[in-house]
């Protein structure tokens, strides 16, 4: 379950080069995703800080709560570790870090732009003469996935596609039996449970930064709310249904989302579905190295505008995926990042018609030299996503 030591050695070597270019003595990781990326230590974020010091030269240092000492050892984290007892603590995490770094050459310390003001002030006091400088050094490294990471994303994609099939089957089974159709919340519990069970069945040590598997399930008029939470509304014949699912292996995320129709689609449902499917296909094929995120987003969403559906757009085409299910780059008009091989993106245009329904198809797409490659492969055509009683 743990990535090979060669991965972390490669990451640290590239980070050292990036710090050198920026004139920084080291980087202080403060977020779960950055800590996991640089060290292999996965933990649940609470009020107790975790700090990972990555010097440009010399050995890294991990500062953790004492309650996590055994858990770090279980994960075979091969980094010098010091601990503090509790939060806020007689001796704080920041003071523990300051004491551990005393005497080390650390005048210019890079931190991520997401560091809170409170943590910034506490660290500045504890680190004395050091200057904290926001840097994108680690964020840039995370934009392109290392070869060792890809198999974990691929494994998560397989599980995520199976979760879609499990959700569909729950509804289809009720139709076959002639029983009540499940509620949105029941479907959500079912698919999340399925994905979590698969994770524990396949891997002896399960690690993650936020979650193993998750999902949004909404049907009928509720599906017109892009981030609406599952309700106790029962699925009904004729519903448009969105299963918006995600899974992670070693906290390498994917998402796979499909729109289903319960019963024979109406002409209106066919129109919206096919427009969204076309936009998703065009947008996915546009995810090629050398194009900007903004250009790809416009290419995708212009398909929907061309179908006269511009008023029903509520979000961009997609976003980056990695150790977090949403991270840079952003496939949106305001992001001019140039796509490069190794970038992993969602392609998920959506159409949301108030009081009617929403339509969204999403795949996780890897940008390669030869072009885009979908990691998720659940069928996207309408015929494959009609759920009806088999007679």
From TrEMBL:
From which lineage does this chain's organism come? Bacteria, Bacillati, Actinomycetota, Actinomycetes, Micromonosporales
* Keywords from the UniProt entry: Aminopeptidase, Hydrolase, Protease
Q: Which GO terms describe its molecular function?
A: aminopeptidase activity
- Keyword Protein biosynthesis part of the UniProt annotation: no
What is the protein name for this chain? Answer: Xaa-Pro aminopeptidase
Positions of the Peptidase M24 domain: 154-369
Instruction: Give a yes or no for keyword Hydrolase in this entry.
Output: yes
Q: Which InterPro entries match?
A: Creatin/AminoP/Spt16_N, Creatinase/aminopeptidase-like, Creatinase_N, Pept_M24, Peptidase_M24B
- Listed Pfam families: Creatinase_N, Peptidase_M24
Organism this protein belongs to: Plantactinospora mayteni
Which residue numbers delimit the Creatinase N-terminal domain? Answer: 13-142
């Amino acid at each position: 379950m743990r990535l090979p030591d060669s991965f972390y050695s490669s990451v640290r070597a590239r980070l050292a080069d990036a710090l050198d270019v920026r004139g920084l003595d080291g980087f202080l990781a403060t977020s779960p995703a950055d800590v996991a990326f640089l060290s292999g230590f996965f933990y649940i974020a609470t009020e107790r800080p975790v700090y990972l010091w990555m010097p440009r030269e010399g050995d890294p240092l991990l500062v953790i709560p004492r309650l996590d000492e055994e858990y770090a050892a279980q994960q075979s984290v091969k980094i010098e570790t010091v601990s503090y007892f509790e939060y806020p603590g007689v001796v704080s995490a920041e003071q523990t870090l300051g004491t551990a770094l005393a005497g080390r050459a650390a005048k210019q310390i890079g931190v991520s732009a997401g560091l809170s003001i409170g943590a910034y002030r506490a660290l500045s006091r504890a680190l004395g003469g050091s200057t904290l400088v926001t840097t994108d050094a680690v964020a840039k490294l995370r934009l392109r996935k290392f070869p060792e990471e890809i198999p974990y994303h691929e494994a998560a994609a397989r599980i995520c596609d199976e979760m879609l099939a499990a959700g569909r089957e729950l509804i289809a089974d009720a139709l076959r039996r002639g029983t009540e159709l499940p509620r949105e919340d029941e479907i959500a519990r079912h698919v999340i449970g399925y994905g979590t069970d698969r994770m524990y069945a396949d891997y002896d040590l399960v690690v993650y930064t936020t979650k193993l598997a998750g999902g949004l399930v909404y049907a009928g008029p509720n599906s017109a709310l892009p981030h609406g939470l599952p309700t106790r509304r029962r699925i009904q014949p004729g519903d448009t249904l969105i299963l918006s699912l995600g899974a992670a292996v070693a906290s390498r995320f994917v998402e796979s989302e499909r729109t289903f129709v319960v019963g024979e689609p109406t002409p209106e449902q066919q129109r919206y579905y096919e427009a969204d499917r076309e936009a998703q296909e065009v947008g996915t094929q546009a995810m090629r190295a050398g194009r900007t995120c903004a250009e790809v987003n416009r290419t995708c969403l212009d398909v929907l505008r061309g179908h006269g559906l511009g008023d029903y757009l509520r979000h961009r085409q997609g976003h980056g995926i990695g150790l977090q299910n949403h991270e840079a780059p952003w496939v949106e008009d305001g992001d001019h990042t140039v796509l490069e091989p190794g970038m992993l993106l969602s392609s998920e245009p959506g159409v949301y018609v108030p009081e009617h329904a929403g339509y969204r198809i999403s795949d996780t797409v890897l940008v390669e030299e030869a072009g885009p490659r979908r990691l998720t492969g659940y069928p996207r055509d309408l015929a494959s996503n009609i759920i009806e009683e088999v007679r």
